[in-house]
Amino acid sequence: MAYYIHWRFQYFSHFYGKIGRLNQNRHIESLLSKISYDNDEKAFRQLFDLFAGRLFQFSKSFLKNKLLAEEVVSDVFFKLWLHRSSIADHSNIKAYLFKATYNTTLNYLDEVRRKKAVSLDDVEVDLGIDRICPETDLINKELKEIIEKAIESLPPRCKLIYKMAKVEQLKYKEIAEALDISVKTIDHQLTIAIQKIGEVIRQYLKENETDGNHLVLLQLFIPGK
Amino acid sequence: MDSKNIWQNVSGKLAGENTKEQDAALDEWLQAEKTNRNIFERLLEIWNYNPAQVQDTSRMYQKFRNRVGQFEHTSRVHNFVSYGLRISAILLLLVGMTILIQKFILPGNETQLAYNEIFVPKGNRTFVVLPDSTKVWISNSTKLKYPHEFSGKTRELFLTGEAYFEVAHNKHKPFIVNIGANRIKVLGTKFSVTAYPEDNLVRADLISGKIQFDIRSGESSKNYKSFFVTPGHSMEFNKATNTITDSEIPEGFYDYWLHGLYAFKNESLESLARKVKRIYNVEIIFEDEYLKSKRYNGSFSVDDNIFNFIEAIKQTSVEPVEYRLDGNKLFINLKK
């Protein structure tokens, strides 16, 4: 049981990372009030640096074009700057920025692709391969490749939602707002993604467990000689 | 518990969206089997893997600053403009009366559009706002001819050279840029046109919106082949081979138009020489034909000078190169 408690502590401890998130939220709040009340450009630059890179990646995953994605991001922040006096009213600036980026991105897509993007079932999403899966003690190179393949083969909408939840650390509600779909859909799609990854891990462990047993058997035989 | 539910609880746990009941159900599942814990451990590892994104945002910030700068500039001149509007309203009334007189009192006398003509010499750049508030950035050795007002069914102008347009939207009056025999038709958008008479390439780069590239086919001035350019793309028409190529807009596009920075990739010295002539007003004379075909990557600033350019060429060249400047001519040769 002691082992189990230890195990729980170790693997659930990442949720204490939430404290870091709270601190960041407080930091963002103070930036927003500086921008809103003092027209503080330095604070605006800090806010820009916090989000611009992620919004750029997000936009680029639809547009597949660096230049246009940069346009989108500077557009979004330009509008935010124009409305800076009411910026502190945004209860959730992160969700607002992602939503604004998504909408602006759609405007930059040509008509044909826009229709597809709105349906969300046909968007090609580029996750950035180096950021999908780590190679660790638990995940060897072979398993890593299997997992990456599984994630890459997810349906576009599913992949996009997985990315927004994992990489951008957005809450279900925030994703729902940004993409204009229901929280239930988000929950459902993320479940599909995690199930798929979980099942390939299960399959891999199962196949390699038998190998492990062979090894144990051999070791038992050798000293017996 | 069915498998659908358990995966919902697992993903909810990762995303931090689970209710207490879901957490409890997940715990139960984890305790039930070691394999479950093994799977979850790995899922958690993947979920938490989120390396910091190294992203240089300074360029994007500069773009944002440019936009703010442009906006503040236009709102500052706005008062001036509205004052000007009152004057032009009076003038317009006078012009209107003249047209009425010409049309009805002096019939048979065709009304002629009065044109403005801007010529930007070599080594210069300028910026104008057209009567319909379309913004135009005009590049070196470029001629732009446009009417005092866009009175007809279309907004039509004539360009030789290179310019970047931000067209004011008006779907009732298509905006047409005539470039020699060919033309570009738009409704409201941001795009650039490169059409120097001495170059074989005519080029349009589209940032957003929609443009129609009309290539004259046959001798008649009414027959055009139309091509649509997609946003983020460039369309190039080669007058010599009669071919069209479509490509993504090069990365240095904005640097060129907004900061006068010309970036080039794998471009021949001969083609660079043509640009240099327009930008710095210096003609490069190749004393050795071989040099023409040498290819370079890099960038140079429109506000810089010919020496920095030629020195960079000299220093990066594998075979030693020498040059001498004589008035507006720069002679280059392989070092003997």
What would you say about this model in short?
The complex is a heterodimer of chains A (225) and B (336). By secondary structure, chain A is an all-alpha fold. Chain A has helices at 2-12, 17-38, 41-63, 66-82, 93-108, 111-119, 141-152, 156-166, 172-179, 183-224.
Describe this structure in words.
The complex is a heterodimer of chains A (225) and B (336). Chain A has 225 residues and is mainly alpha-helical. Chain A folds into two domains: 1-119, Orthogonal Bundle (Rna Polymerase Sigma Factor, Chain: A), CATH 1.10.1740.10; 125-225, Winged helix-like DNA-binding domain superfamily/Winged helix DNA-binding domain (Arc Repressor Mutant, subunit A, Orthogonal Bundle), CATH 1.10.10. Chain A is built from ten helices and no strands. Chain A has helices at residues 2-12, 17-38, 41-63, 66-82, 93-108, 111-119, 141-152, 156-166, 172-179, 183-224. In chain A, helix 2 (17-38) packs across helix 3 (41-63) and helix 8 (156-166) packs across helix 10. The radius of gyration of chain A is 22 Å and the shape is elongated. With 336 residues, chain B is of the alpha+beta class. Chain B folds into four domains: 3-47, no CATH class; 57-111; 113-248, Jelly Rolls, CATH 2.60.120; 259-334, Phage tail protein beta-alpha-beta fold (3-Layer(bab) Sandwich). Helices cover 35% and strands 33% of the residues of chain B. Chain B is built from seven helices and 18 strands. In chain B, strands 1, 2, 3, 4, 5, 6, 7, 8, 9, 10, 11, 12 and 13 form a 13-stranded mixed beta sheet that branches. In chain B, strands 15-18-17 form a three-stranded mixed beta sheet, with helices on one face. In chain B, strand 8 (190-195) and strand 9 (201-208) form a beta hairpin. Chain B starts with a helix and ends with a strand. The model of chain B has no long low-confidence stretch (mean pLDDT 80). Chains A and B meet through helix 1, helix 3, helix 4 and helix 10 of A and helix 1, helix 3 and helix 4 of B.
